[in-house]
Write a structure and sequence with these properties.
The chain is an alpha/beta fold. It has a single domain (2-224), classed as TIM Barrel, CATH 3.20.20. Helix content is 41%, strand content 17%. The chain contains ten helices and eight strands.
């Protein structure tokens, strides 16, 4: 826990400095602790330090952590690629899904979402057109946006991206911010009220993400250390 505590202190300083440089309030940026490949004990340790938002990429691993943390008031974000046969468990167990990139997945999440909840979702955009990354191509986003708006158990909150390894983070995040702004007028009035989220930025480029309007940054290494 000591390492997580000291890592969080350093990370919070980075976020605060980046927010100040961008002329933004610290509370305008939500830190998602990406706990993939880390044990449930690390989730509990991070939660004891006040973190409440956790991101997971691998469903089977995530379900164990969600179950063992059921007594904690945590919000769970699914940030991995979505296989169609996994949508039922994702819809039941997670609060947010960041990686919706096709109509089939959106419809399955909507159909399998429990009647007692609504699922907060983001469209994953492959902003760099990287064949190694998931996400819908930029030009296809408006179509997917229209389709998701018709699904009553999904609340469309915004956009998410994972950059290519050779990307220029500043330029790519600026493109994401512009796309986010350009799409807002295309939303139905009821959907526009919830359009508030840009999930972008990780350990190595959180400053560029914050300077371009990221509302959620997904941090694993800077918080939990390198993965084995």
């Amino acid at each position: 826990m000591q390492n997580i505590a000291s890592n969080l202190e350093t990370l919070e300083h980075r976020i605060a400095v980046a927010c100040k440089a961008a002329g933004r309030a610290r509370d305008s940026v939500t830190l998602i602790a990406v706990s993939k490949t880390k044990p449930a004990a690390d989730v509990h340790a991070a939660a004891a330090l006040g973190l409440t938002q956790f991101g997971e990429n691998y469903l089977d691993e995530a379900l164990v952590k969600i179950q063992t943390s059921a007594d904690l008031d945590l919000t769970w974000h699914y940030i991995g690629r979505i296989q169609s046969n996994k949508t039922k468990d994702i819809a039941a167990s997670f609060d947010w899904v960041h990686t919706v990139d096709r109509e089939k997945v959106a419809r399955r999440l909507n159909e399998q979402c429990p009647a007692t909840k609504q699922l907060q979702v983001l469209i994953q955009v492959n902003i760099d057109a990287d064949p190694a990354k998931g996400g819908v191509m930029r030009e296809a986003v408006p179509t997917l946006l229209r389709e998701i708006q018709q699904l009553p158990r999904l609340v469309l909150r915004g956009l998410m991206t994972i950059l290519a390894a050779d990307s220029d983070p500043g330029a790519s995040y600026q493109s994401m911010a512009q796309l986010f702004a350009d799409l807002e007028p295309q939303l139905d009035p009821s959907a526009r009220a919830h359009w508030d989220t840009l999930s972008m930025g990780m350990t190595g480029d959180l400053e560029q993400a914050i300077s371009n309007g990221a509302t959620h940054i997904r941090i694993g290494t800077a918080l939990f250390g390198t993965r084995g």
